[in-house]
Amino acid sequence: MKNKRPTARITFFSFLLAFAFNITFTHAQESSFVYGDALPDAPELAPRANYSVGVRTMNLVHKDQPDVLNFKDGKDPLYDRAITVEIWYPAQLKANEEALIDYEEVMGTAGDTLRPLIPFTFKGRAKRDAAPVITDGAFPLVIVSHGYVGSRYLMTYLTENLASKGYIVVAIDHTESTFKDANAFQSTLLNRSKDIRFVLNQMANIEKTTPKDPLASLIDSNNTAIVGYSMGGYGVLNVAGAGYSDGLGSFFVGMTGGSKAISVHLASTAEYQAQKDPRIKAVVAFAPWGMERGVWDTEGLKGLKTPTLLVAGSQDDISGYEKGIKAIYEGTVNAERYLLTYRNARHNVAPNPPPAASLKPGLHIDEYYRYAEPSWDQRRINNINQHFVTAFLGTYLKKKDYSKYLAIPENSNEKDWYGFKPRSSTGMELLHAVPVN
After folding, report:
1. Each residue's pLDDT tens digit, 104-136
2. Tell me, what CATH number does 407's domain have?
3. Omega into 284 within 30° of 0, i.e. cis?
């Protein structure tokens, strides 16, 4: 027995050493993980492509817009609406340059005493103000719209990823709808679609307005996709052709005390019909809000004819699933569309993972659940979104044949989906429908 005890001690010591090493290694992995990095089980199209990524901020002004927050005496006063956008693009870096950035963000909501604004930073894989690639021609344009409340940095895992694949990606800070400046909801109802259209036009005209801008000749605005999450989904569907119902118009009039400014977005008005934009070739709507609340009716949904990818959680308790997002899928009968569903997920199928700052004791749990999903690893959702958005936009903007990634069994539990690691494509559904006309 005396000869066995030292061996046992050595074995136990080796176990402790290995355990400590594993903890250290795991923490090292977590500390080096950047939002959007590919996990070991990431599907095939999730990883970044060959382009380095540059990022820059641009400040825009949409002049003479209706100020519905100050509607008075039967009319909306006008104001100049400041809009900040973040632009990610294919970049050329010097040999010693590293594509790594600290994004400055906040938790909380402006004016909420229970959830005050708390600054924090998180890392991304992009280089601030890097020189753009100028040798490969123009790149398709992708415009991204956040939820209420949110910010232009809410989906950097996707914006950076798409830029690495040869897109110019413009994410909007929707004034009066961000963490920092949240205001009454009627501003978001009205301005979400208006902001998206305005930013598209600004990007299309950048060569005229700022001809010396290095991005001026690189944006192919005639080949545009619009991507939205929650209230962003509400906006992009409208911009693409799904006009809002007269019921929403009446609700808006009552909410504002008489303003009819939203009529420009109603399916029944000639002004809305005149705004259809052939430059938009694809739509991605994550958890779009509004269908359960009567924002669209049957006729309004028929106006959407642009190829659309909807992404939802089957337990979405904000936008609704059966009578919400899935009803949009079923009602947009004149568009080719897909519906990707995460089983047992709720509403947060689009954002970055929860920031480390949201884990601090004493913070309101909603700071964590502004990002997190109770049944899914958010990093996993991010990778799957990267995969399917790459396949979808590659099909409709780059004219690549990604059919093998999209023509897959509806139920991921029945058979491994193409492009996924064996045994990894569980808990999802992908529906596909073609236009009736």
Report:
1. 999 999 999 999 999 999 999 999 999 999 999
2. 3.40.50.1820
3. no
